[in-house]
């Protein structure tokens, strides 16, 4: 392997790590986190349904032994394949990372510390 290939692979891996961390950062911002803490249980469940649905669809494609092939010969077809890949990244990676982060924030918001009975100490509610 050439050094150029290794540098390109390292750069690509770094970009993928940044793209995976971006949804968590966007969800954990203070204003958004405050709204997430006040979300009802039904809304959190709906987030999970939205995050799991693309993976369920992919699982069904794999179980039924369907082949997904792409032939991109022109620049327009290549751009379309790149756009579909970006949408799939959003559905398969960014959405689940955002939902997991939001669920952690939501659960932390539900575990407020209140004074304990009798001793004035602090205990989780």
Question: What level of helicity do the residues show?
Answer: over 70%
- Uncertain spans, ≥5 residues at pLDDT below 50? none
**What's the N-to-C terminus distance?**
57 Å
Number of strands: 2
Number of domains: 1
- Principal-axis shape equals extended
Spatial extent as radius of gyration: 21 Å
Average pLDDT value? 86
Q: What is the makeup of the main sheet? A: 2 strands, antiparallel
Proportion of residues in β-strands: under 5%
Pattern of helices and strands: HHHHEE
Structural class: mainly alpha
For the largest beta sheet, what order do the strands appear in spatially?
1-2
User: What is the count of DSSP helices, taking H or I runs of 4+ residues?
Assistant: 4
What does this structure look like?
With 125 residues, the chain is mainly alpha-helical. It has one domain. 74% of the residues lie in helices and 5% in strands. It contains four helices and two strands; from the N terminus they run ααααββ. A two-stranded antiparallel sheet has the order 1-2. Helix 1 packs across helix 4 (75-110) and helix 3 crosses helix 4 (75-110). The longest helix has 36 residues, at 75-110. 6% of the residues are buried. The model has no long low-confidence stretch (mean pLDDT 86).
């Amino acid at each position: 392997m050439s050094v150029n290939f290794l540098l390109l692979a390292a750069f690509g891996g770094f970009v993928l790590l940044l793209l995976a961390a971006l949804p968590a950062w966007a969800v954990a911002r203070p204003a958004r986190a405050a709204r997430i803490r006040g979300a009802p249980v039904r809304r959190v469940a709906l987030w999970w349904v939205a995050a799991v649905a693309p993976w369920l669809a992919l699982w069904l494609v794999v179980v039924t032994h369907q082949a997904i092939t792409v032939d991109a010969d022109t620049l327009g077809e290549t751009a379309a394949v790149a756009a579909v890949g970006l949408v799939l990244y959003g559905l398969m990676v960014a959405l689940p990372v955002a939902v997991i982060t939001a669920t952690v924030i939501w659960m932390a918001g539900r575990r407020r510390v209140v004074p304990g009975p009798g001793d004035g100490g602090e205990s989780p509610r």
